[in-house]
Amino acid sequence: MRRPGGALTWSAAGRVLGVAAILAFALFPAYWMFSSAVDADAAHRGATLVPTNLTWDHFVRVLDTGGFGQFMRNSAIVALGTVFVSAGVALLAAVAVARFTFRFRTSVLVLILIVQMVPLEALVIPLFLQARNLQMLNSLLGLVIVYLAFSLPFAVWMLRGFVAAVPNEIEEAAYMDGASWGRMFWSVLLPLVAPGVVATSVFSFITAWNEFIFALTFLQDADKYTVAVGLQRFFGQNTADWGAVMAASSLITVPVVIFFVVVQRRLASGLTAGAVKG
Amino acid sequence: MSSTSTARVAPIVPRGPAPDAHRRRATRRRAARPWLLLAPTLVVLAVLLLWPLARVVNLSFQDYGLRELVSGESNYVGWANYAEILGDSYLWTVVLPNTVGFAVCCVVLTVVLGTLVALFLNILGTFWKTVCSTAIMVAWAVPAVTGTYVWIWLFDPLNGLVASALAAIGVIEPGTVNWYTDRLGFYAIATLNVVHHGFPFVAVTVLAGLLTVPKELYEAATMDGAGAWRRFWRITAPMLKPVFAVVTILSTIWDFKVFAQIYLMPGGNGGNAEVFNLGVWSYIQSFAQGKYGLGSAIAVLLTGLLLVITVVYMRTLFKEEDL
């Protein structure tokens, strides 16, 4: 696209500006979060773009007296529990809809799509009452069970794309060699879709790690809080300890961002495979 | 599994009706297999999604308060909750405009911004494309809860970046302006938050779509003297219609049920009734006021609204592909 003289410099300048604008808009909130977390005088930094006195004090305070380590442990337990169960269950269902033709297959797919639209606000009331009756409020297990419900449909939908991407011929070759269906599943299909399972699991992990409305409603004691609810601790009646809030926010955000950026390719390919291919 | 049963059955009854029966059994087993694989998922969905949905509809016809919560008894009142909500001018003047207006603004801005970013990324070289897409992935990955706190902090009336910057250039008197108490200001900040969190999905999806459009089409159009604007409306837009349909409808569904981003903002958790949307109103009625029946009716209303959008979504999707 080389054009003589002025046009080239104008379009180059436009690109530089565009890249700068995208980077600034996309990254500024994350930058502001982290830079406030390491600013000794965070609450009064005002419009100072670069933090003045660098310090880890906010992190130490949040983890030490704020008890945020406990919240992160709780979130990790809930998220890992959700991931392990939902990955297994979703993979089985994904194989069913991607590899078999059976009556009501389309209905099952439609159901899986539709239930993703159900607002959590509608589920939180009946599930709260149910959990209350079963004495499951204030329990991390209760949260795992609930998170399973809304990480499953998405996981099935995504894994379906990954399973469908494995050529049928490979499966048939395994049968030719005398493998039973179960053997084929373990030794052939599972290793091939493993990357898809990892990508899907990361997504389930993030969903459970961040979830807010159910954690807010179900958890009552501070020692059971997950990170999303625990953050509220650093807000006073009318004031906020912004250094601590931003330090705690950074602790929540950093693992998620790293996970997400690492699996972005897989995620994108899984999404398009699920969305575009049959 | 099937190989062992073959070995057991075959030598005993070499011919006659038995192989038929065996084949039938094998066929039945093959027919049952997808359902066995689906069973755990279907059980989870039934118990944790469909049953609660039925229960919330049931609750919406009851006056279910703290007394019923303790006793566990039901207390049916017919359509009274719906009559109360639909007859309340608060729904029509505050909550519904908040919900719909906010969703429409967010969807339009998200899709336009996401598309512009995708078109721009498409003309960049590999290196800068990777850098920019990684940056927008970061914006996507920042959790809604922590992202919301950052926006609250940025717009903090006393010490936030925006207030301080505006005060420094003399536009406002420091500490005199509070955007959060004003409905428009509140929702402007919430819109910024949601658009920032939502545009990466649109950008990434549209960019993936752009890669499928044959380059020859653009070359031919350029030869015919079509400018960038015409090329977009004559080639890109029609070719990517299904992609735009999907991102628009998905964004609509997501933006209608925004909860944490509103609830966490100052006043959003009950302090300022001017800023509730349907989800927050339902939650406050249920868990702050203890009116679970009324809250359920509001939740059913929101679910119904989303169901309509979902049906449109399914129609669009089914037209494009055969599941």
From TrEMBL, chain B:
Protein keywords: Cell membrane, Membrane, Transmembrane, Transmembrane helix, Transport
Membrane-crossing residue ranges in chain numbering: 35-54, 100-124, 131-154, 184-211, 232-254, 292-314
Keyword Transmembrane helix annotated: yes
Chain residue ranges for the region called Disordered: 1-24
Membrane topology annotation: Multi-pass membrane protein
Location relative to the cell: Cell membrane
Domain ABC transmembrane type-1: 96-313
Pfam families found in the cross-reference section: BPD_transp_1
PROSITE patterns (UniProt xref): ABC_TM1
Superkingdom, natural source: Bacteria
Homology family: Belongs to the binding-protein-dependent transport system permease family.
Protein's recorded name: Sugar ABC transporter permease
Organism annotation: Occultella glacieicola
